[in-house]
């Protein structure tokens, strides 16, 4: 009877053939040809231990305050927090994979990500307690390696989702992807923050002690570091940096003469600043500017005689801020989004968006030009750019709203809290 149950479960969801700890028949599985089953049974018991725990969430302000008087003890406690917290957060997502319909979970691309998650889960949870700076350096090295290996997760999920469009409902795909992406952002934030603090700490030891050996921090040594968080990020400067970069990329992709891509006018409260992880905000801004730029050039190309650079309307980026929030409006005259498309812009399962996922080098002409080294850049979206941008905004307590004037243009509003006091929002559906 138990065996029957096990078989039933096997066709139900991905990998729960070994998620049936109550079944006494488990003993007999050892004699089955699949020698992995007992091991997987054990692993799932371990997974249970972690997935039954909640994430210990942090706010940007906490990250900044933590780095303020950074001492060796504090750095080691940060290391041990990351060491114990990452496996909890990964375990929740491994469970999500296991809840996928069996046929979707065994898709090779999904499977690859699932295996990567297991690998990282095991490697991090098995890392012994970090008691010295040397332990911490080894730990950071291991985290950096994982961050690199996991850069293939987004394209693989893109390919996987594309192949599962007929197996899972669009709502299920969107929920699955939102959970995957927000958890990924959160894990990478913790890992990158800790690595940045550790590097900064090592640099400070070197500069204070003037020694080449990093074995011991000078007595009473403390420093103020903020890692990847910028406590007062100059938004106008960040926008300007993104604007220059995207104009150059589009000129290259569309073979336009230098300085002829649509202008990007930054206006409003140019003195505003706020607490953020600049990489996250750049991702969002870049994505929205890319969409605007593409729409304007497409509209320009549709005109007889091709693109007339002088006649292209500018993109207006307006900054507005109050005590609590900062809002950035990106306004274009690129023709707008038709009403029938609008409800689908936040979806990961829009087949039109994913039409070229078979070869993710060819997502569009712009991205096709991106070299191998840039393929892991946060600027590549693989068709997920818009929903992923909203996940970034919501993760830090903000949001993105898009208003379309079909036939005319689009206004996108990014709102973000200024003070960094919101804890991570990990429950985005
Ligand atoms: C991810 O990028 O998905 C991670 O979980 C990174 C972490 C293992 C350091």
Characterize the structure shown.
- With 429 residues, this protein is of the alpha+beta class.
- The protein has 2 domains: 24-209, Up-down Bundle (Butyryl-CoA Dehydrogenase, subunit A, domain 3); 230-417, Heat Shock Protein 90 (2-Layer Sandwich), CATH 3.30.565.
- The chain is built from 14 helices and 7 strands.
- It has helices spanning 2-12, 26-29, 36-51, 60-68, 72-99, 102-105, 108-125, 133-149, 153-163, 170-209, 235-253, 278-302, 365-368, 385-395, and strands at 230-234, 264-268, 273-276, 315-321, 325-332, 399-405, 409-417.
- The strands form 2 sheets. Strands 2-4-5-7-6 form a 5-stranded mixed sheet, with helices on one face.
- Strand 4 (315-321) and strand 5 form a beta hairpin.
- Helix 5 runs antiparallel to helix 7.
- It is globular, with a radius of gyration of 24 Å.
- The relative contact order is 0.11.
- 2-OXO-4-methylpentanoic acid is lined by residues 86, 90, 120, 143, 146-147, 150, 153, 184, 187-188, 191.
- The site of 2-OXO-4-methylpentanoic acid (COI) has 12 residues, from helix 5, helix 8 and helix 10.
- Belongs to the PDK/BCKDK protein kinase family.
- It is an enzyme of class 2 (transferase).
- Keywords: ATP-binding, Kinase, Mitochondrion, Nucleotide-binding, Transferase.
- This is Protein-serine/threonine kinase.
């Amino acid at each position: 009877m138990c065996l029957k149950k096990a078989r039933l479960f096997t066709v139900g969801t991905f990998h729960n053939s070994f998620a049936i700890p109550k079944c006494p028949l488990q003993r007999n599985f050892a004699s089955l040809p699949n020698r992995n089953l007992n091991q997987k049974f054990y692993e799932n018991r371990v997974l249970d231990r972690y997935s039954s725990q909640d994430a210990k969430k942090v706010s940007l302000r906490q990250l900044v305050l933590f780095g303020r008087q950074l001492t060796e003890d504090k750095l080691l406690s940060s290391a041990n927090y990351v060491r114990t917290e990452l496996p909890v957060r990964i375990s929740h997502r491994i469970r999500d994979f296991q809840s996928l319909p069996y046929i979707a979970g065994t898709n090779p691309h999904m499977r690859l990500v699932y295996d990567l998650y297991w690998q990282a889960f095991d490697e991090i949870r098995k890392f012994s307690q970090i008691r010295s700076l040397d332990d911490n350096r080894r730990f950071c090295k291991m985290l950096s390696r994982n961050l690199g290996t996991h850069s293939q997760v987004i394209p693989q999920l893109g390919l996987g989702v594309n192949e599962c469009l007929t197996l899972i409902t669009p709502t299920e795909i969107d929920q699955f992807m939102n959970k995957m992406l927000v958890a990924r952002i959160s894990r990478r934030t913790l890992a990158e923050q800790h690595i940045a603090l550790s590097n900064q700490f090592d640099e400070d030891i070197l500069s204070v002690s003037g020694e080449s050996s990093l074995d011991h921090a000078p007595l009473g040594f403390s420093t103020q570091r903020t890692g990847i968080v910028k406590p007062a990020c100059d938004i106008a400067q960040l926008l300007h940096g993104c604007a220059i970069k995207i104009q150059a990329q589009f000129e290259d992709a569309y073979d336009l003469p230098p300085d002829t891509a649509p202008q990007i006018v930054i206006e409003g409260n140019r003195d505003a600043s706020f607490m953020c992880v600049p990489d996250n905000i750049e991702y969002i801004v870049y994505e929205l500017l890319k969409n605007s730029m593409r729409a304007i050039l497409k509209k320009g190309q549709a005109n007889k005689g091709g693109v007339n650079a002088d006649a292209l309307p500018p993109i207006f980026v307006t900054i507005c801020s109050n005590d609590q929030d900062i809002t950035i409006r990106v306004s274009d005259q690129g023709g707008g989004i038709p009403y029938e498309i609008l409800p689908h812009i936040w979806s990961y399962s829009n087949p039109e968006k994913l039409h070229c996922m078979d070869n993710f080098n060819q997502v569009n002409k712009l991205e096709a030009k991106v070299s191998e080294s840039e393929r892991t850049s946060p600027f590549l979206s693989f068709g997920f750019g818009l929903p992923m941008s909203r996940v970034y905004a919501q993760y830090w307590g903000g949001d993105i709203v898009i208003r379309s004037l079909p036939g005319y243009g689009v206004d996108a509003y990014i709102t973000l809290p200024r003070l960094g006091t919101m804890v991570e929002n990990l429950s985005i559906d």
